[in-house]
Amino acid sequence: MIPQIAADRRGANMKKIALGIMALAVVASAPASAAVFNFTFDTTSTLFGGPNQTIRGTFTTTDTAVDRFGFTGLAITGISGTINGTAISGLFDAPGNPTYYYLTSGPTFLDGSGVRFNAGDATNIAFFHQDGVASDTYRVNGNGTISAFGPATSSPAAVAVVPEPATWAMMLVGFGMIGATARYRRRAAKIAYA
């Protein structure tokens, strides 16, 4: 009977460890503090005889609101999408570059400094609200051939949370330990009753 008690204790300890790993996996799969917004800019109002400009994609922002010129804003931490069919490769990053904000209140969704990004061979493309014009008028400008103004829209995006690979690994380890515990207990029960 003593071996059975020891086996039960080992099984209980393994079960606690497995449950702990599962709890860590659940906590790790919780979404990071971020929000995602879809945006579009599509216009034939070009400057300097350039081609039509179409930008579509998403902004990733923080969830922490800040005051930006009297409006509530969220810092933009990422951008994805396309400009004229070319993939946007990310934010333009340079020393002294202004902090970008996505405005959630006020007449515009991008402040005067807007957001700058890279796409293909083009770098430092500016996308911003055109000061001194209608609240729905924005401008894209960069590399000489990209210059247009017109309406743009933005709205929160519904994004499904997908666990990271490390989270999947922890969950698999947890399930494996639960299975091993059950198998160990069955084996211990057979020995005890043999």
TrEMBL record:
Keywords, A to Z? Membrane, Signal, Transmembrane, Transmembrane helix
**Where in the numbering of this chain does the Ice-binding protein C-terminal domain appear?**
162-186
Residue spans crossing the bilayer: 166-184
Pfam families linked: PEP-CTERM (PF07589)
The answer, when asked if Zinc is one of the entry's keywords, is: no
Q: Is GTP-binding there in the keyword field? A: no
Quick one: signal sequence residues?
Answer: 1-34
Q: Which NCBIfam families match?
A: PEP_CTERM, PEP_CTERM_FxDxF, PEPxxWA-CTERM
Protein name stated in the entry: Ice-binding protein C-terminal domain-containing protein
